[in-house]
Protein: Cytochrome P450
Amino acid sequence: MLTPCFVKWRTTLQNGGEEGVVELKDELNQILMLIASRCLLGNEVREKLFGEIYTLFSGIEEGVNLVCFMLPYMPIPANHRRDKARIRLTEIVYDIMRSRKTCDGVEEDVLQKLMDSRYKDGRCTTEAAVAGMIIALIFAGKHSSTIVSTWTGACLLTHTMFLDAVVEEQREIMRKYKDNIDYNVLSKMETLHSCIKEAGRMHPATLGLIHQTQKNITVRAKEGSEYGIPKGDTLVNLVMLTSKLSHIYKDPEVYDPYRFHPGREEDKVGGKFSYAIFGGGSHACPGEAYAFLQIKIIWSHLLRNFEIKLTSPFPKTDWSKFVLEPKGKVLVNYRRRRLESN
Ligand code: HEM
Structure:
């Protein structure tokens, strides 16, 4: 299903040549938009509307900063562009849904699943609800994955030991499975998986999680003291702090993907919420497995087909954004290669 996305992306990445310099965040954003539009929205978008949808989502993403979050209705250009983009995206989704209904077309994508879904009481989903859910899903799926895959690249390209380990893992995969990368093969890329997971821990996309307690609970601190929290209270987990707690993660400021491997498993030391990059509880991210899958597909493809070097300094975090992303341009030099399996 994803091969056409890579073919389309390769043309952009290569820009006609075998080597060059590209801005990594932008490239990853494009491939993730291609994947999202194929898997979530369907063929119509990827074939005919990709450029427009890409621009509209950039308009929405521009509105994901702290000012727009605190003052969502303030008449500033970012809020205006976000709202205009949302209206146009809804129109596009309505058109796709209506044309599928008119032509009796059935596609294999999430949009179709939402269109065919029913509420518990038997009612069909409304057009407005489907459009809202699909736009939210694309945003949730593409934006955070772009950020985590860019941090993964920046971390790997500056840590030779782990880059070599991931490349060796790809060689091993190629020896065994050639280029037949399916779901099962992706689940065998354990080193790459840990490198992505560790990039997420070091650079969490989420500033904090805000949840409301549904019942009275008791929380025990590490020294043993207990705190009662009444039902209805709002709790905030500052993920960028909790993912660096030194009694859970040894040398938390060091990029060390092996901390998740058997024998160490530091993400389990503090209980099930030690690793909260994807949230937790009843509102935990439902797209976690999908996110790992797409980031693994992208980086395994890149490492097998390109030699890549980071040419700009290691990026800083952009604290003005609501979803924390690498600040400024992340430039990489690429040269096409075919990774030899022996
Ligand atoms: C690396 C990529 C991703 C990261 C870091 C991420 C992170 C998160 C976080 C922190 C939350 C809030 C959880 C909480 O409040 O406890 C969340 C919620 C959510 N995510 Fe993700 N996510 C990613 C990818 C995806 C993908 C690929 C999808 C779907 C295609 C997705 C769909 C959602 C949805 C629908 C929610 C709301 C869940 C609810 O409120 O019940 N996410 N995500």
In short: Residues 3-205+286-336 form a domain with the Cytochrome p450 fold (CATH 1.10.630.10). The CA atoms of residues 226 and 312 lie 47 Å apart. The pocket of protoporphyrin IX containing FE is lined by residues 137, 140-141, 144-145, 148, 205-206, 209, 277-281, 283-287, 290-291 (CB under 6 Å).
